[in-house]
Amino acid sequence: MCRNITMLRGLEPPATHEEVHAVALQYARKVGAVTSGPLLTSPAFTEAVEAIALATEKLLEHLPPRRVPPPIVPPNRRRATTT
Predict the structure, then answer these.
(1) How far apart are CA 39 and CA 62, in angstroms?
(2) DSSP percent split of the chain into helix, strand, coil, nearest 5
(3) Among residues 7, 9, 4, 6, which one has the least CA distance to residue 58?
(4) Distance (Å, rounded) from C-alpha 22 to C-alpha 65?
(5) Which of 1, 20, 34, 81 has the most CB atoms within 10 Å of its CB?
């Protein structure tokens, strides 16, 4: 659907809850065509992001390990290594 959504499977150390939540937010914003404003804080949007994050964490738990790590470092990890 969107090649810009961050890959989390195969990260070392594994993806954190914050990274999963950021990807869920990224996905929900893309699907809902929501870029800013009050829709981002609406209960329906917040609930959707939490449901996506939960489903993503469950999926990552059940997938087999990757042989090769993802080619791109998630944005949250890039910021942590540059400071």
Answers:
(1) 32
(2) 60, 0, 40
(3) 9
(4) 21
(5) 20
Return d(Cα 43, Cα 83) in angstroms, integer: 34
CA–CA dist 46, 61 (Å, integer)? 23
d(CA 42, CA 78): 29
Residue type for position 73: V
Q: What is the pTM of this model?
A: 0.76
At position 81, the amino acid (one-letter code) is T
Count of C-beta atoms within a 10 Å radius of residue 51: 12
pLDDT of 61 higher than 90: yes
Q: Answer for the pair 30, 1: CB distance below 8 angstroms, yes or no.
A: yes
Instruction: Please tell me the distance from the alpha carbon of residue 64 to that of residue 71, in angstroms, as a whole number.
Output: 18
